[in-house]
Specification:
The chain is 49% helix and 18% strand. By secondary structure, the protein is an alpha+beta fold. It folds into 3 domains: 4-63, OB fold (Dihydrolipoamide Acetyltransferase, E2P); 66-135, DNA polymerase, domain 1; 140-204, no CATH class. Residues 158-203 form the Holliday junction DNA helicase RuvA C-terminal domain.
Amino acid sequence: MIGKLKGLIDSYGEDFVILDVGGVGYQVHCSSRTLQHLPSPGEAAVLSIETYVREDQIKLFGFRTDQEREWFRLLQTVQGVGAKVSLAVLGTLAPADLANAIALRDKAAVSRTPGVGPKVAERIVTELKDKAPAFANVDPAVVHLAGAVDDQRAPRPVADAISALVNLGYGQPQAAAAIASASRSAGEGAETAQLIRLGLKELAK
């Protein structure tokens, strides 16, 4: 099984690159994001590889990092998500952004991917929510709060404050982060109005 290829860029296709390794040209399918970051033809490149072996074909998928390849595998554990959709998601969101979106239940960010509708985005953030926090670089308190709001377990003032900020035009993840910080400052038992005021101050920083 091929796990990594190091060679010279020979040429590019719509969704693949031909990598010349010792005179052998390997066709490697990549996300649009990966293709954009690869060098010009004739220059050296290294790709982490995921090899798919089917009865009628062998297909190689290439990634700039092992972490990106790990996300490619993780995404395909979600019902209805195959290699094509996984590559499209990784073309839209960098691994860190994808991890943050899943940790914060940000379905809107995932559904920006061409070909990914609200239902598939919902499945991705739901089925991978326990795996994303390990990769995410967001405050664990924000992840916890986002989960509580999503599961309707958050205290009413907190949920109302987040809803108010969303109605003002802020994204759900931004609003959750601001209110998580506001809750820490105000302590338990803070009223909705106080949380909104402190949350807006956070967002203005």
